Fold each of these.
Amino acid sequence: MKKFLILQMRPETEACESELNAILRFGGLTREEVCRIRVEQKDIRDIDINNYSAIIAGGSPFDISIPEVKKSSMQKRVEVFFNSLFDKVIPEDFPFLGACSGNGLLGRYCGTSISGKYAETLRSVEVWVTKEGAEDPLLKGLPKKFSALAGHKEACDTVPRGAVLLVTSDPCPVQMFRIKKNIYATQFHPEADAEEFILRIRIYKYAGYFQPEEAEELSAAIRESHTPVPREILRRFVDRYRSEK
């Protein structure tokens, strides 16, 4: 049986481990079904994607829209890795789901600009499914409007070239898109629940997502959030691409 490849890029071990556990829990995956690589820790030159059934890429505190001279060697290494990965994923239409940073990295690779124009503070946001999204296997039959957890300093300014917009919102128009048939990206976090986001508020309190004095208020608001639909999207992705061989 081929495994899911989980790609992570959070330098903070506590956040990284919690993100992995959330992907496993809400994706319905066991440890035995995944291979996890912390991309920020390794200088990976090549990956044979055909050794895996699908790829899931998580978030990170890196901002790809900042000038190159301000990027750390770690961040540059992560970006080089993903550009090389997309060189393989896109021509083969290989199953991929990128969340938040995964969304920005894929969007930039496909030619859209990334900026802080549509940034969102860590919180529950209201999004809605487009006409095309309503026909997509990951969204078909789900509510046309739903709540999702989001928090990002940058986002795609426009729908990437060749992509289909699946989920949108007024504060951030590109919330989820698909390239070809099997390559997905979400700006919101399909792997997160309130507990996970409260942890991230604590860890990233001084990372520029919000004013530090807002942390307690944001945590209290998120504690009351209810966001089951994004987690169903993650589970559908896993179920669709789970290998039986």
Amino acid sequence: MEQTQVPVGVLPLELFKDHLRLGTGFGVDSVQDGMLETYVRAAIAAIEARISKALIARDYSYTVSAWRDLAAQSLPVSPVSAITAFVIVDRAGGEVMIDPSKYMLEPDMHRPRLVSLGFMLPQVPVGGAARIEFTAGFGPAWSDVPGDLAQAVFLLAAHYYEHRFEGAARERDMPFGVAPLLDRYRNIRIFGGRS
């Protein structure tokens, strides 16, 4: 679950306007900013969903009811820069904060993990859950996003902008040129992921 949203000031609206070659100097250059922001956010969301990567750093919360691996838990979004909290919640809602000296982040571009520094992760009570809070993203600024992913965002947002008046999308897949830019970032899952 995404806990924070990308701030408007971080979105590359001026760069996107340049990409679209929108006219300037008419005294109302910002009249389309709200609409352009919507298309850029939609493109970012679509690309992040496709590659399981957060482009701009923000906070997430991940809750599980049982461990798949007793010694480590894979996180669903990458790249993760920090685990900010690790909490065990009982069925009554009581919370126990786990000491950071008992676990570590194992960074990975595709499948980062929270790893126990002991024999196993703390037991998740019956009817309870474990909540892992973390920060994921390439960085806090648009300039931290790899160039090929930034270009993919612009291409997809431009596609949304150019087809904004069409009632139904004709294409179910990414438009031409976007998918090849994403291929090296896609996580190939074999046998349902790491056990």
Amino acid sequence: MLMNKAETVLVNSPPRRWLQRFYEVRVLLRFGGRLLPGARALEIGCGSGYGSQLVLERFGATSVDAVDLDPVMIERARRRLARFGDRVRLVQGSASDLRAAVGAEDGGYDAVFDFAIVHHIPHWRAAVAEVARVLAPGGRFYFEEVTAHALARPTYQRLFDHPSEDRFTAEQFLDELARHGLVVLGSTTRICGDYLLGVAAKPVPAGSDR
């Protein structure tokens, strides 16, 4: 589900950028995230590309594949990330079918980033399943999400467009990660449970040399 104009302005605003760079990155690193030299990363719902920029600059990933449903956002991201050259691949497509979107193989990524996009996806459980599928053993899923608690607020309902069914609480989101074999290393909620931040890992099979 595409963001409406009001939310597009909000998520691309300077305060939101500051929050991502100077707060959310630190929280994600504290909750089991790690720097990613040599890593292949994926950002789902990349928007204008600022999240992918952080994945390269602050987390140190070697390359990023970034997918978004909105072709306008893909073009904005292309302009923002042009200076990174072939370290970035931008693709229009759905996070609920990453094989079709980016040709993602099982275990193809060392890290997947979700900067508040899964709550926009009507079939969000399919997106979580795809994250688990494409993560390599030992890989990390970095997530920052808006919960059903926030989406039920009158201000959210007046200003923004979101799926009206099967919204998730923080607990339901974490449970869905566990259902797909991801182990939550650390998480936190903010503003009465409105926002969820955390990191989950895909376990390394016993006997593996990873």
